[in-house]
Design goal:
Blueprint lengths: L1 E3 L6 E3 L2 E2 L16 H4 L2 H18 L3 E2 L1 H7 L1 H10 L5 E3 L13 E2 L2 E6 L2 E7 L9 E5 L2 E2 H5 L7 E2 L1 H5 L11 E7 L2 E7 L2 E2 H12 L3 E4 L4 E5 L8 H16 L4 E5 L11 H6 L6 E3 L1 E7 L2 H4 L13 E3 L8 E3 L10 E6 L5 H12 L4 E4 L9 E5 L9 E3 L2 E8 L12 E2 L4 H4 L5 H14 L1
Parallel strand pairs: 16-17, 17-22, 22-23, 23-27
Antiparallel strand pairs: 1-2, 3-4, 5-25, 6-14, 7-8, 7-11, 8-9, 9-10, 9-12, 12-13, 15-16, 18-21, 19-20, 19-26, 24-26
Helix pairs in contact: 2-4
């Protein structure tokens, strides 16, 4: 352990000798597919990329951020197969309680290729559409080499991969606005408050567009108890219909998933059918962790990937006809961040011709894996598996090679967002207006 200097609280890092890197990969045996996909040839190819990065770094010992960078080929390989699988750094504070008072910039960001744009802001010094160029003299392009390719993110999450760069007292942020370069500085606010306030801005946000006879409802997440969400959605859509709004846009671009509570009731609002088909089959990897979750697994099955019995999966479920609201046309905005049960929501609506999906494709295999369990710390490093999928699903879908495609493709273009407008939503409204004649 070595102390990390110039940080807001006392933290430490772990050094890893170069000789311990690039010989073999850590394995995730609980996952239903990784062991079979990581063939000796695939492992050797990834190790070669890791060693090339180590040689480029040219260090005898590597810190946590160095490990993140050199192991990026493997982390990306895991993430490309299963978007649930992430390896993240821990902040090794001398007093863990101190991490709760760490401050972060009071905005979130939209990432389009190598461009980072302010998406929502609580701080008047930062406006939607501002392009972030650097933080504490570190270029955005450098930060992005260390992190995952999320469409929507927070500065703190992006920075912490680069040598705990969010653990500071002040953030000097260089940005571009309207073609002008502006140097700013902020102490930010505690992460818990910033995250809460940003979520409150999005929670079932409603916008109406009379010229297009349209309205947009933002659904930022699904919850352990979706009854409130279902009631609000149902009542709001009935109000839209009463005032002549017939096009309803559901914005799930920042919805990572959540819980499928009362999903049959939720889908009944949009689908006019007695029932919907959901799963063809599902498989689970038998391990010590999964044996405690599924009674049918036995010691003899350890290491095997086996199909779940009928009583453990939902192949088809009935809908509630009284919830359906007719005479409406639905569109669902989705992005690469739309995941887990939110991805299934999009898929079910598309498969049942209940809505048109709009935006960009979902991540590969966004529908394929789920039921995550807590991952482990990759000792002796400070890296941690944040969640491991244990079930492989086979949903009824129109996905192509594991990728759910939009019916109306509207790609993210950085220059369209520098004005502060929501370009994808604007373009969809233009399409709807033309359809309305």
């Amino acid at each position: 352990m070595i102390p990390v200097e110039n940080r807001a609280i006392e933290i430490y890092d772990v050094v890893t000798p170069r000789t311990e890197i690039g010989q073999r990969l850590f394995k995730i045996h609980e996952h239903p597919a990784f062991d079979s996909l990581l063939t000796p040839e695939a492992e050797q190819r990834i190790l070669s990329e890791i060693n090339l990065r180590c040689n480029k770094l040219d260090k005898d010992t590597l810190l946590t951020s160095d490990l993140i960078w050199v192991y990026r080929p493997y982390f990306d390989w895991l993430f490309n197969e299963d978007p649930h699988c992430r390896i993240e750094p821990m902040i090794p504070a001398k007093d863990v309680r101190e991490t709760k008072r760490l401050k972060v910039p009071e905005f979130d960001v939209l990432c389009i290729n190598d461009t980072l744009i302010v998406n929502q802001s609580l701080d008047p010094d930062y406006q939607t559409g501002d392009r972030i160029l650097s933080v504490n003299d570190i270029p955005v392009s450098t930060f992005l080499e260390y992190t995952y390719p999320d469409r929507y993110d927070t500065p703190a999450n992006i920075m912490r991969h680069y040598y705990f760069s969010n653990v500071v007292d002040t953030f000097r942020i260089k940005l571009e606005r309207g073609g002008c370069i502006i140097n700013t500085s902020t102490a930010g606010d505690t992460q818990s408050r910033v995250v809460l306030k940003l979520k409150q801005q999005q929670a079932l946000k409603v916008q109406t567009f009379p010229d297009a006879k349209s309205a947009c409802i933002t659904i930022p997440s699904f919850y352990p108890n979706n009854s409130w969400l279902i009631k609000k959605l149902h009542n709001q859509i009935k109000k839209f219909k009463a005032i002549g709004i017939t096009n309803v846009i559901l914005d799930l671009r920042m919805n990572p998933g959540g819980n499928g509570d009362r999903f049959d009731e939720l889908l009944s609002i949009f689908i006019n059918r007695p029932s919907v088909k959901y799963l063809r089959k599902a498989k689970v990897k038998c391990s010590q962790k999964t044996m405690g979750l599924y009674d049918f697994l036995t010691e003899e099955m350890l290491g095997q990937t086996v199909e779940l019995p009928d009583n453990e999966i939902v192949r088809e479920f009935p809908l509630q006809s009284k919830m359906y609201i007719d005479g409406m046309r639905y569109y669902v905005l989705m992005s690469r961040d739309t995941g887990s049960i939110a991805a299934s929501f999009c898929n079910i609506l598309q498969f049942n011709d209940a809505a048109l999906l709009v935006g960009e494709p979902l991540l590969r295999n966004a529908l394929k894996y789920g039921e995550t369990v807590q991952g482990k710390i990759l000792l002796p490093t400070l890296l941690q598996q944040t969640g491991i999928s244990i079930v492989e699903y086979d949903e009824y879908t129109r996905a192509v090679d594991g990728v759910l495609m939009p019916d109306i493709a509207i790609p993210y273009v950085a220059r369209d967002y520098l004005s502060g407008r929501d370009a994808v939503l604007d373009k969809l409204l233009e399409i709807i207006e033309k359809q309305n004649g």
